[in-house]
Amino acid sequence: MDVTALCITLLMIVMLLFCECDQKVNAVSLHIDPNRAQFFQYESVIFYCEGVFYCEIIHDSKGEIPSCKTTTKGTQTGSSCTVNNVYPADSGKYWFDAGGGKRSNSVNIVVTNGSVILEIPALPVMEGEAVTLTCRNKMTSSQTLAHFYHYGLLVSNSFKGNMIIHNVSKSDEGPYKCSISGAGESAESWLTVRDGQKVTATPSSKELINSFSNFTTWIFVTVLVAVVVVVVVGLIYFAHSYWHKVMYVSTVRPGSDSPGNQTVEYRSSCGRSYYNLGLNDTQQHEQGASDPLAHTNPEDIYYSTIQ
Length: 307
What we know:
The chain is of the alpha+beta class and 307 residues long. Helices cover 23% and strands 34% of the residues. A hairpin with a 2-residue loop joins strand 22 (262-268) and strand 23.
C-alpha cells in the first residue's frame, strides 16, 4: 500500500472517530412537529431526535413505538420518526434513549377524540417570549368565543379563539385549558417557562470534566490505534523491501593455499558464497538450483577483480 494513501486513510478514520465522539459528547434533545401538547384523534406527530442516528421513540406505558422502525429518517442534526393516526391511548410522555444509559428530554402530549383542543407549546418556552394559546374547534375553522383557564381560574375571553401572553414569565407557568360554548372543553396541559439565563448558562464543572474525560479517552484510543497501524504497516513495508532488494557486500580474504590466491565473499540476505580467485582473475558467478543467488537480478550482482 502506498504510504500517502495509508496516511490519508488513517486521517479519515481519526476524523470519523472524532465526529462520533463529538456527537456523543453533545447533548441530545427531542422535539415534535407540530409543537403542541394536544392533538385530535387520527392526526400525525413527527418526533425529531437531535444528536442520534436512529430515532427510537419510547412511550412511558407502551414502551418502544413499533412504527418508528419503518418511518425513521435521517436529518441534518439527527433523525426523525413519524407516528400516524394517533389515538387517545397514545397520550403520555415520550423520550428516546441516547445510549450509555442516557436519555433525552421528555415531551408530554394529549390525544383526544373530543371536539376541542388547546394548542399550547409542548416544549418549554423562553422567558420573555410571546406565547400564543389557541382554542381549536374540530368541527369548524371559524372564529368563536373561547374561554381560557389557568389553574382552573378564568384568565381570558377571546372572540378570536386565541390568547397571547406577552413577555412570558415564570409566573405564567402552569396548567392551561380552554372551552368553546356549544363545542366543549379541552384537556389540561402544562406550559413550561425556562429562565433565559439558565438556558444559556455554561455547563457545570462536573459536566465539563466528564465531557473532557470522555473526549480525551477517545483521542487517546484513536491515536494509539493509528500508531499501531502505522508501525505494523511500516514493518511490513520494510520487510517487503528488504527481502526483494538484495544488497551485496564483497570482502577479500587471503587464500589458504597460496599468497596470490584470494577468496571473494558475497553476502546476501539469503546466505554467503565464497569463490577462490587468483591474481588478476575475474570470477563470473553462475547461478544454480542450490545457489542462494539463483533468484537474484543479475544487475544487482557485483563481481570483484583481485589486483
